[in-house]
Amino acid sequence: AGDGQQRQQQQQQKENNQQQQQQQEEDDEDLEQDAEAEQEATAAAAALKASQGAADVAGAAQKLLLTKVLPALQSQLVVDGQEVARAPVALALIKLIKLLPADVERIALPRCLTSIAGLLRSRLHSSRDAARDVLGDIALELGPEYMPTIINVLRAVLPDKGFTAHVLGYTAAGLLEAHVKAGVEPGQLDDALELLLPTLEGDLFGQVAEAKEVSAFAGKYKEAKRCRAYEAYQHLAAAVTFETHMDKLLSLVREKLPAATSPTVRSKLEQLLTAAARGVGANPSVTSEGLAHWLGTQLESCLRVEEAARIKAKASVGATMAVGKTRGSGAAGDADSSAAAADGHAAGNDGAAHRYLLTHFCLTVLNGSLKRGVLAGRDPGSLALLDPLLPLLVRCLDSRHMGTVQAALKALTVLVGVQQLPGLPAAAAGAGKALSSLLRKVPDAGHPLAQDCFKLLGAMLRDCPSYHPPTPQ
Fold first, then answer.
1. Which of 77, 108, 117, 199 could disulfide-pair with 157, CB 3.0 to 4.6 Å?
2. Coil, helix or strand for 389?
3. Is the pLDDT of residue 215 over 50?
């Protein structure tokens, strides 16, 4: 019994020791946690103090930049007593402004740009050239997103009259060219499009264009000797988002179609559209599906207007001939001439008589894309996009304008070689009739139009087994 009691006491002592050890471990763990919490609190306090210190340092640095560095750079931007800008100072100033808060940038950036743009009003060619070079460097440093800001400053500083109007268009075209050469992503110049179009329009069709034709005035200023609107238009066509901004770009041409009765205006519109076609060919945002859909829509719209104008003209001629028969042969000639002139004037008022310019532009873009563009592929997807264009091209063969007809013949010649097009048999039949009509009108077989007709006819006979020309053809 004594031994059992002793063992029981030892067991009890052992349990008490274990409890004390466990309690000691818990106490040590609590002490460690308290120590860690205290360390974390100390670290957080130190971090807060450090961040407050960093914020104080940043605030002090920003205050120093705003009150000392920025004014000092602005004061050294232009050489005292000379109309010359310091390019290194300008770039340093722009880089500094980009690091400052947005509210400071909104004030400081236009001020810097205005100082540089003001030098473009100088009568010295060297001063204007130097200012343009500095502006080009600034534009590249800022990026194409800032192009609207620069254009707005230029329009505010350079009056749209006198020699400064020529300087405005010349400088805007130079800045646009600098961005395109440096490389821009599709859509980065979309916001600048609406600001640039009025400048291009004034450079081509306004008083600025008239002054360029005066040799005495153009000889005085470098900017008046050369019109850069066409190359600027090409750069815009190559850089804007095709599906969303191409129609806005062509609005400049559409608005001038009623005035295209003037040979001078018509020639300028043709040059603009030629430049735009080259730009579209280099536009990376153009897709095969988007281009095919856009071409189909535009061709349908232009052909519908052309065909309506053609029907109206025929009706007018018929009515005039009827009036002439009732009044006599002599009066008929006079009536015919006056009616034709009146009809041409009426058609020119809404531009319908000159829609063929846009039709020819669409066909030029199509031919370029078929040769080496996004529609040059012969996969099933591309063929499905090309097939709806066949009937539109056949309708183009009835146009009264040789350029449109020749462009349509070239496109059809390429497409006839693609034998997998489902609409080819129907298109070949319609094209055959149009070819017969065209060949009867050409003066001889050596005429360029006749040569294009023979090429298409040969392609249909060779590559379109379903085409069988009737005996008269």
1. 117
2. helix
3. yes
Q: 338 vs 250, which has greater pLDDT?
A: 250
DSSP 8-state code for residue 66:
I
Which tokens in the block code for residue 322?
A: 């009827």
Nearest Cα neighbor of 228 from 170, 162, 280 is 170
Kindly state the average pLDDT of the residues 18-23: 74
CB 352 within 8 A of CB 303: no
Helix (H, G, I), strand (E, B) or coil at 306: helix
* Residue pair 127/135 in contact by the 8 Å Cβ criterion: no
For 83, the 3-state DSSP assignment is coil
- What does the buried/exposed string (b/e) look like for 111-120 if buried means 16 or more CB atoms within 10 Å of the residue's CB? ebbebbbbbb
pLDDT at 2: 65
Going by the DSSP 8-state scheme, the letter that residue 466 receives in this structure is: T
Q: What type of residue sits at position 285?
A: S
Q: How far apart are CA 345 and CA 323, in angstroms?
A: 20
Is 453 in a helix, a strand, or coil?
helix
Q: What is the DSSP string of 27-54?
A: HHHHHHHHHHHHHHHHHHHHHHHHHHHH
As a whole number, mean pLDDT of residues 121-132 equals 89
How far apart (Å, rounded) are the C-alpha atoms in residues 238 and 341?
A: 39
pLDDT at 217: 57
Rounded CA-CA distance 396/434 in Å is 10
How far, in Å, CA of 370 to CA of 225, rounded?
37
d(CA 232, CA 200): 8
Per-residue confidence band for 347, with pLDDT thresholds at 50, 70 and 90: very low
Look at the pTM and tell me if it is higher than 0.90.
no
pLDDT in tens, 370-391: 998 899 888 888 888 999 999 9
- The chain-wide mean pLDDT, for the chain, equals 83
Instruction: Give the per-residue pLDDT at 105.
Output: 87
Provide the CA 250 distance to its chain's centre, in angstroms.
Answer: 10
The closest alpha carbon to 430, from 402, 464, 383, belongs to 464
E strands present in 271-364: none
Assess whether pLDDT exceeds 60 at residue 147.
Answer: yes
3-state secondary structure of 85: strand
Q: Which of 125, 115, 133, 151 is nearest to 224 (CA)?
A: 125
* Whether 339 contacts 319, CB under 8 Å: yes
Helix, strand or coil, per DSSP, at residue 470: coil
